[in-house]
Amino acid sequence: MINGEKTIGNPIRWAMVGGGRGSQIGYIHRSSALRDHNFQLVAGAFDIDPERGKDFGMNIHVAPERCYPDYITMFEEENKREDGIQAVSIATPNSTHFEICKAALNAGLHVVCEKPLCFTSEQAKELETLAKKRNRVVGITYGYSGHQAIEQARQMIANGDLGEIRIVNMQFAHGFHSGAVELNNPSTKWRVDPKVAGPSYVLGDLGTHTFYLSEVMMPEMKIKKLMCTRQSFVKSRAPLEDNAYTIMEYDNGAIGTVWSSCVNAGSMHGQKIRVTGSKASIEWWDEQPNQLRYEIQGKPAQILERGMDYLYPEALADDRISGGHTEGLFEAWSNLYSRFAMAMEAFDRGETLNDIWYPGIEAGVEGVRWIENCVRSADNGAVWVEYQ
């Protein structure tokens, strides 16, 4: 159980690039990183507008001299300080991730990066090689994977509770962009611009989240080939898609599907994963994140509740309050940031953590790889492609 007592020796001196005033995601980064006293926010380059960024930083109690106009200046100046930063989180538009992450690694910093890590597999492999060379952690914020129910699902599958895995149905399909909301919403506008968002919209922005949940639950299953079709129902978004279907064949003979969409009109969030085995199935829905549905063939369906003693110990280790109380996305992100902190401290000691998982550089590389294969299939007429 997590109760806020320290899990590392000293808080990690931490900064942010982006995530300033008006950011959709900056606040959850800060709330989650600071919750368990594993990180201390001491610096930032919070905004492309230096004055606005400095004003914002001062309003969240960062010293004015450590509110920098850009990340390059921050890395250079912090490197001169005995109390300089040790880690940085990147909460900026997609097109900037590669260069900022590369610069941070070259500055000897641990990194937590928004997804996608970058645009191409070549870039992703370059970052992976650099992270290993510098012995630095690169964490990817697949925040939903920090929910307790995901760890329970992982343990159930590993223990054989479901039998042989046959089918994995995934979706992240909300309806908030059923119309051209980007015309009046700057935070959406860049997501449908290929120069800023990259080669995909909903595949990268939504589909990779639920795809990573499947990787956490079934780490041994590998994709052999896939087929993807994608559409731009709001025509001005082309060539980027606002809806996509992906079918995957795994190396164990299982089949998987991912529905990625922002035009599922009426849906609030619509992120679900259902794993079907030869004996039983489990299903998780992020709008009811504290429950995991467990269906054994021939028996009544069961609802496994967060925080209860019948869960596997590995799931209960992520518990923050007793069963019956709800936990949400902030707790899930906090669980990931706690894992990032433990990994960073271990790397600083020249060790690696083998007893916990977290979405690291390999997850970032795989996310980029999955998007590339989906786009390659879709743009060649929705054909089957070998997974490369």
Query: What is the strand content?
Result: 15-25%
Q: Kindly report how far apart the N and C termini lie.
A: 40 Å
- CATH topology group of the largest domain: Dihydrodipicolinate Reductase, domain 2
Helix percentage range: 25-40%
In terms of quaternary structure, what is this?
single chain
* Spatial order of strands in the largest sheet: 13-12-11-10-6-9-8-7-14
CATH H-tier superfamily of the largest domain: Dihydrodipicolinate Reductase, domain 2
* Tally of DSSP helical segments: 12
Category from helices, strands and their pairing: alpha/beta
Overall number of domains: 2
What would a concise description of this structure say?
The protein contains twelve helices and 14 strands.
Question: What would you say this structure looks like, in words?
Answer:
The protein has 388 residues and is α/β, with parallel strands linked by helices. The chain folds into two domains: 138 residues, NAD(P)-binding Rossmann-like Domain (Rossmann fold), CATH 3.40.50.720; 191 residues, Dihydrodipicolinate Reductase, domain 2 (2-Layer Sandwich), CATH 3.30.360.10. The chain is built from twelve helices and 14 strands. The strands form two sheets. A nine-stranded mixed sheet has the order 13-12-11-10-6-9-8-7-14. A five-stranded parallel sheet has the order 2-1-3-4-5, with helices on both faces. Helix 4 packs parallel to helix 5. The longest helix is centred in the C-terminal third of the chain and has 20 residues. The radius of gyration is 21 Å and the shape is globular. The two termini are 40 Å apart.
